[in-house]
Specification:
- The protein is of the alpha/beta class and 213 residues long.
- It has a single domain, classed as Rossmann fold (3-Layer(aba) Sandwich).
- The chain contains 10 helices and 5 strands.
- The strands form 2 sheets. It has a 3-stranded parallel sheet with strand order 2-1-3, covered by helices on one side. It has a two-stranded parallel sheet with strand order 4-5.
- Strand 1, helix 2 and strand 2 form a beta-alpha-beta unit.
- The radius of gyration is 16 Å and the shape is globular.
- The structure holds adenosine-5'-triphosphate (ATP) and magnesium ion (MG).
- The site of adenosine-5'-triphosphate has 18 residues, from helix 1 and helix 8.
């Protein structure tokens, strides 16, 4: 998750996608590179036995990726600080897929260029994920069209502004656990399914866990 804009939804998406992988039976960890430690603090409150949350420095990413692979991990989700700096570039280089959460609002849309540049330096596929989008507003389609006409790829699933995303994380859960039949859970399942397809991660695994277990 990379975006130089603060509050775009990086940590929210990192946590939610990691839990989606965990619920699907994968061995998954979140690597939190942000000194704000949002994902780590969430991990401290979490009672379930996964996903693991690791706080570390960007320079150690290649080592972490090797160690995770050696330990049989299926997926690492990297959460970054709101920067387009060396740490974000290191994250881009370590990643198979870069997701750029972006609110459909003009200041946010203008700010994604630096992140897209970083992805092209790292030569990694990057997709904008429209996040915290207002429900039933023309601005979402406008943002998607504007991004696509500027050459950006936009993930098919928009993440809307829903209280479940912010409530669920208070006690270390995700919206899929807090409200398994809710709209937020549905959006995350769909985004996870699509993102898994992008990186060749099989989904719908035999070992899927039930939310709340
Ligand atoms: N889809 C959403 N619906 C409702 N609230 C959201 C949504 N996405 C993010 N938020 C809220 O917006 C705030 C910022 O989100 P988040 O911390 O995920 O952004 P971030 O990009 O990680 O920020 P930073 O750049 O500071 O690391 C949080 O309070 C979060 O709960
Ligand atoms: Mg964050």
């Amino acid at each position: 998750m990379i975006s130089q804009k603060g509050g775009a939804g990086k940590s929210t998406l990192a946590i939610h996608l990691a839990v989606a992988a965990y619920l699907d039976g994968h061995r998954c960890a979140v690597v939190d590179l942000d000194p704000q430690a949002t994902a780590r603090k969430w991990g401290d409150k979490r009672e379930a036995d996964g996903p693991e949350v690791i706080g570390d420095h960007a320079e150690r990413l290649p080592h972490l990726v090797d160690a995770a692979r050696a330990n049989g991990a299926d997926l690492l989700v990297i959460d970054t600080a709101p920067n387009a700096d060396r740490a974000s570039l290191a994250a881009a280089r370590a990643a198979d897929l870069i997701l750029i959460p972006c609110r459909p609002a003009s200041f946010d849309l203008e700010a994604i260029e630096a992140t897209r540049d970083l992805a092209s330096i790292a030569k990694k596929p990057a997709w904008v994920v429209l996040s915290a989008a207002p429900i039933r507003s023309a601005i979402v389609d406008e943002a998607r069209r504007g991004l696509e006409s500027s050459g950006a790829k936009v993930a098919p699933q928009t993440i809307h502004h829903r209280v479940a995303y912010s409530y669920a994380v208070i006690d270390g859960r995700s919206a899929s656990e807090y409200e398994p039949d809710g709209k937020a859970a549905e959006e995350i399942a769909s985004l996870f399914q699509w993102a898994s397809g992008q990186v060749g991660l099989p989904t719908g695994g035999r070992h899927g866990r039930k939310a709340g277990t």
